[in-house]
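Help needed: design a sequence for this.
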């Protein structure tokens, strides 16, 4: 009698272990499936790092990618610039990014075409990023006392 009850307990424990493992595997697969449908949020640095790792680029493509990165970085770094030099850099980058001139090989649209990127998509992303950055800056300014706001 005791032997049977011990065996029954061992068998029940094994069934419970198996059920728990199956539940863990099922839960893990749900997480993996859910992750497939999550939006990818990448900074431009992360995006371009991925391109560099996955593609063996010829020197010309590397140069084109570097020019594109520099234009985007200049736009983003100087969007809230106050001094004239940085403001001029921002305006130059903005004009380059929004120009549709494809007559020279290092124009924004030419680089995008050569690298297989959609210029409209990049522009929409930069516009959304800029609007968010300006809204965040305005919220921050609204929280500052009046004296500090004039100095900032």
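Sure. Designed sequence:
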């Amino acid at each position: 009698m005791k032997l049977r009850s011990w065996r029954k307990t061992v068998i029940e424990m094994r069934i419970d272990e198996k059920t728990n493992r199956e539940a863990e595997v099922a839960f893990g697969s749900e997480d993996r499936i859910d992750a497939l449908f999550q939006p990818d949020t990448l900074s431009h640095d992360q995006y371009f790092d991925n391109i560099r790792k996955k593609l063996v680029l010829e020197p010309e493509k590397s140069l084109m990618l570097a020019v594109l990165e520099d234009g985007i970085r200049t736009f983003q770094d100087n969007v809230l610039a106050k001094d004239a030099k940085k403001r001029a850099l921002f305006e130059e980058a903005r004009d380059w990014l929004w120009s549709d001139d494809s007559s020279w090989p290092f124009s924004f649209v030419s680089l995008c075409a050569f690298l297989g990127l959609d210029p409209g998509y990049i522009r929409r992303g930069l516009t959304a990023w800029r609007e968010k950055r300006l809204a965040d800056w305005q919220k921050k300014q609204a929280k500052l006392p009046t004296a500090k706001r004039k100095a900032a």
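The two ends are 85 Å apart (CA to CA).
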